[in-house]
Amino acid sequence: MGTAKSTRRPFEELSTGTGIEIHAEKYLRRRYMRKEDVTADGDVTHIKRFLRWADEQEYDPLELDKDGYEEYLFWMNAEDYAFSTVRGNYYSVNSMYEFLIEEDVVESNPLSEIELTSRNYSFATTRSKKAQKANSNGEIIYLEPDEVSKMYDHAKEAHGSALRNELIIKLLFQTGLRRSEFCSIKLDAVDLQSRRITVENAKVGGSRTVMYRPNTDLLLREWIDVRRPSLPTAEDSPYLFPSDRSERIDERYVNRIVKQTAEAAGLQATHYREHGGNKRAKVTAHVLRHSFAVDMLFNYEMDLRSLQELMGHSELKTTAVYLNIKNDVALNAYQRATSSGRHSSPDEQSVRKRQQPMGVESSRHQQSNW
After folding, report:
1. In the 8-state DSSP scheme, what is residue 45?
2. Annotated catalytic residue 142
3. Which of 239, 289, 290, 300 is catalytic?
4. Which residue would you say has higher pLDDT here, 3 or 193?
5. Is 154 one of the catalytic residues?
């Protein structure tokens, strides 16, 4: 029965932290109520696949543009999905976005400029290889600690409270949290004495504990004791970062703060230019997560297993991609030294030092210096 199926929650097990699941379920309820059971069942499969892909890429479906969906087409092509499946996915996702426009959830449909045929599908997936390459494990984008420090100095130039903006950037960099995890930090999960924060793990379930550094103490205390209580939503919000209008800050807003601050600090650049001429920002909240991982490996010599736990990765191979950066740095240092015919500089010696095998003891040493 169509009405019975309308009570299902097919996306209940998904938790992207973007709120897209709620809107997708509302869309499907309407389909089932119209007794479009067969096509609605297909929509569930297609939309689930799309949302899982977006979540794995840490893309917000509510902010996705045309080239973002073309990246998804490229992925489906690489996974050898039949064109009939690709076409079915296109129609399902396109219909969902049209519904989101009607509901004033999004302003535009990222699929509206894509005319999918078996002929241009090959062209579209080839064209999106540039975007895919720019987001591949081999080209992880990260900032050096001194570059992140520049962002602290320019936090006041982003929208909103300068203190809150600086605190957001510091905590993102010092904890390596995902945006969804960061926005979900509960006030009572922050231990000011031990500088520990307990968060719900967005990807593998359960919880984990992360740490922040002493130079964040004053900012965090002022936020909790003075600034946060002044917000109209603070009294009823369990979250560390409520907004002026809701009980917790929005993930897209956090990303906007990071982008604006990086721009003000002179760090923002075009990651790659999309086919339509739009730019993809280089520095995002996720780049600060990468920066945390690289900082732990390079400057604190943390072992890979400990970093895996702090990052909340379900598999060690996910964490291991950061080792590619270490290899690239060592190779570049070697090439500079040998091409000039001179001994290595102190900086290059430091690079070599950072290439030493990492062990548990080095991780313990790192934790003692927080």
Report:
1. H
2. no
3. 289
4. 193
5. no
